[in-house]
Amino acid sequence: xxxxxxxxxxxxxxxxxxxxxxxxxxxxxxxxxxxxxxxxxxxxxxxxxxxxxxxxxxxxxxxxxxxxxxxxxxxxxxxxxxxxxxxxxxxxxxxxxxxxxxxxxxxxxxxxxxxxxxxxxxxxxxxxxxxxxxxxxxxxxxxxxxxxxxxxxxxxxxxxxxxxxxxxxxxxxxxxxxxxxxxxxxxxxxxxxxxxxxxxxxxxxxxxxxxxxxxxxxxxxxxxxxxxxxxxxxxxxxxxxxxxxxxxxxxxxxxxxxxxxxxxxxxxxxxxxxxxxxxx
Length: 280
Known about the structure:
Layout: E1 2-6, E2 13-17, E3 23-25, H1 35-46, E4 72-76, H2 80-85, E5 95-99, E6 104-105, E7 111-113, E8 120-121, E9 124-130, E10 146-153, E11 156-157, H3 158-162, E12 178-179, E13 184-186, H4 187-190, E14 197-202, E15 205-211, H5 219-229, E16 237-239, E17 261-266, E18 271-278
Parallel strand pairs: 4-16, 6-12, 7-18
Antiparallel strand pairs: 1-2, 1-13, 2-3, 4-5, 8-11, 9-10, 9-16, 10-13, 14-15, 14-17, 17-18
């Protein structure tokens, strides 16, 4: 299933995309696409004939596909080529950092360049959405805890991240720095999450073009590893790292300005598109 949340920010409604790419309303069956739905209702939703659901008219705004995300755990330097372009050593264990949930925005919402920001950058990533509580999960059982997958753009302000001391979270958590969606694709439909093409363009030029098979630490390992250090609960998001081609790694570096447009995608998970605007 492709689960969607649509409508004005803060007032999204649950929906799904049918086989003909028609948006259908799910609010007669669930209140939202949230932890409760991911934990208890996915099986019930699979049994619904999409043709029996009301068709959503017009072209509503698409929001982030999961409501009430508890935490976003990000994996840094998880593609060898990206570590190299960042002039950082290849990690022996996953590099983990957090991204504030207040950064979450819709996949087509504008990205706001904060006042004073000088090094705004892009990072297309495959995100894992947890559907079952995980504590110290064996790697072989890890994928049983996944509800589905979506795209996340790990927008970053490199000066905040790397030049202001302390942890990376400062450069990762500004409002609109975590566009998610457009859909949450359930795990049964995705198949192997370790074999998905992943790409990003800025102003029509493709800078990132890779495949999740090049992840240093694969998704089952990441879930198992992270669950040793913290409990993963339904609705939590693991953003699995970005491939090479970020602005920081170009020679010379290239950063985003107001008016620039990012277009990004992961095979089977749809596409995002954001325009950068200055903070008002």
